[in-house]
Every structure is written in structure tokens, then in C-alpha cells.
């Protein structure tokens, strides 16, 4: 009963019907169940008692299996570089347990990207009327940055950076994506703007066009 048989269903099975597939599974289960039943009968008939000395290695000993059947495991020992920006877009909501001490200090941040863990954020970072009117912010996007994640805690700790606006609008959604991936979308500095042509409208001269490849 502990054995799970995984079978593939192809066009041949579809032609022969479900009965053909059921018969194939039944045969496979019978083959796998021969081990314990027949060995038990043989031991009962002969009356042979095996001692600890002649007890050989068990069949499920992983040392007897070929390498291709083993699942290699490893352990993370050091984080060489933090690739993620630790910033995420999501929503804030009150904690479920209103009687806990944590409810008085923190709110729950739920990222839109489910690969990012949920985060405890201080209520001081939330809007002033968030505790009394949490439903007013149910569709408001926020940016949160993770600052810590302790080993004995199910959720990370973070800080709310800013409010982006209503979910579903293009500008808040775009700004959130840019911040998550660490893209600098701030305004250009005056030094950069001085490199641009000052007299508008500006056209490319015929001599410059002759040196360029037109990719329009």
C-alpha cells in the first residue's frame, strides 16, 4: 500500500481503453509485492532463524544503489552576493491575531511576487489611519524593503519605503517593477542635460546622416 505507481497514458492506452491501463498497473503492483510475501513464506516453511552475524546488507541500503539513482544534497554555507534588491511591491493588512503584542507593533506586508516572503513592517511606517481604516488601503500598492530575516521567524522584517498608488494603474505598477529590479529612474542631472542640443527643434545634419546607418 506504500508503493505509488506512476504510469504514462499514451495513444495506445486510449485505443485499448481504461481496462488496459488498469491491468498494467495491477501487474506492476503484483511484481512489487512478491518480495515480502514470498520471503515470509520461505522462512516459515524451513524454520531457519537468521542470526545477526549472517544478516547481510538490506535491499534499501543507499550504499548499494548506483549513483544515478541517488539524490545529491547540499547545504548553503555562505551568501557570496545578494542579487535581489530586497525591495518588493505589495499590499499591507492587519495581523489576524488582534490580541497579540505583535498586532500593536506590526502589520503584514504581502508581496505581489509570491517568490518573496511575507514581511512584518512597523505600524509607524504605515499611514496614520491604517489601523482604524484598513479597508481604505486594501488596493493600495506599497514598496517594502526587507532588512532582516531571523532563523526562528516565519516571516521577514522590513520597512515601508513609499506608497505607489492604486493597484492596476500603469504608473504605480511600472514604478514598482523598476524599484524591485534596482533600476535608477530618477531625473537626469543638469550635467547630463547640458550634453543635449539646446536649440530646438534639432535635426541631424546631412553630413552626419551620411556617416550613420539608418535603422528606422
From TrEMBL:
Gene Ontology cellular component list: P-body
Bias type Basic and acidic residues, positions: 51-61
One Pfam family per UniProt: OB_Dis3
Locations listed in the record: Cytoplasm
Keyword Magnesium: yes
InterPro entries noted in UniProt: Dis3_CSD2, NA-bd_OB-fold, RNR_Ribonuclease
Keywords, alphabetical: Cytoplasm, Exonuclease, Hydrolase, Magnesium, Metal-binding, Nuclease, RNA-binding
Residue ranges of the region described as Disordered: 38-61
A molecular-function term among this protein's GO annotations: metal ion binding
Top-level taxon in the UniProt lineage: Eukaryota
Residue ranges of domain CSD2 in the record: 107-182
Family matches, as SUPFAM superfamilies: Nucleic acid-binding proteins (SSF50249)
Gene Ontology biological process terms from the UniProt entry: miRNA catabolic process; mRNA catabolic process
Record carries keyword Acetylation: no
Protein name: DI3L2 exonuclease
Species name: Leptocoma aspasia
Annotated gene: Dis3l2_0
Amino acid at each position: 500500500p506504500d508503493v505509488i505507481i506512476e504510469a504514462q497514458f499514451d495513444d495506445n492506452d486510449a485505443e485499448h481503453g481504461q481496462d488496459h491501463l488498469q491491468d498494467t498497473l495491477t501487474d506492476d503492483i503484483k511484481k512489487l509485492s512478491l518480495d515480502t510475501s514470498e520471503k515470509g513464506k520461505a522462512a516459515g516453511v524451513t524454520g531457519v532463524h537468521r542470526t545477526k552475524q549472517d544478516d547481510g546488507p538490506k535491499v534499501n541500503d543507499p550504499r548499494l544503489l548506483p549513483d544515478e539513482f541517488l539524490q545529491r544534497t547540499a547545504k548553503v554555507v555562505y551568501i557570496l552576493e545578494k542579487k535581489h534588491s530586497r525591495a518588493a511591491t505589495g499590499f499591507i493588512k492587519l495581523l489576524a491575531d488582534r490580541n497579540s503584542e505583535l498586532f500593536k507593533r506590526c502589520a503584514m506586508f504581502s508581496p505581489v511576487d509570491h517568490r518573496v516572503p511575507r514581511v512584518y513592517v512597523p505600524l509607524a511606517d504605515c499611514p496614520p489611519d491604517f489601523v482604524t481604516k484598513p479597508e481604505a488601503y486594501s488596493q493600495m500598492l506599497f514598496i517594502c524593503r526587507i532588512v532582516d530575516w531571523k532563523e526562528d521567524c516565519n516571516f521577514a522584517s522590513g520597512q515601508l519605503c513609499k506608497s505607489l498608488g492604486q493597484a492596476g494603474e500603469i504608473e504605480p505598477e511600472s514604478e514598482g517593477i523598476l524599484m524591485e529590479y534596482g533600476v535608477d529612474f530618477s531625473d537626469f542631472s543638469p550635467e547630463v542635460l547640458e550634453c543635449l542640443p539646446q536649440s530646438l527643434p534639432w535635426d541631424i545634419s546631412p553630413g552626419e546622416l551620411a556617416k550613420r546607418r539608418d535603422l528606422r
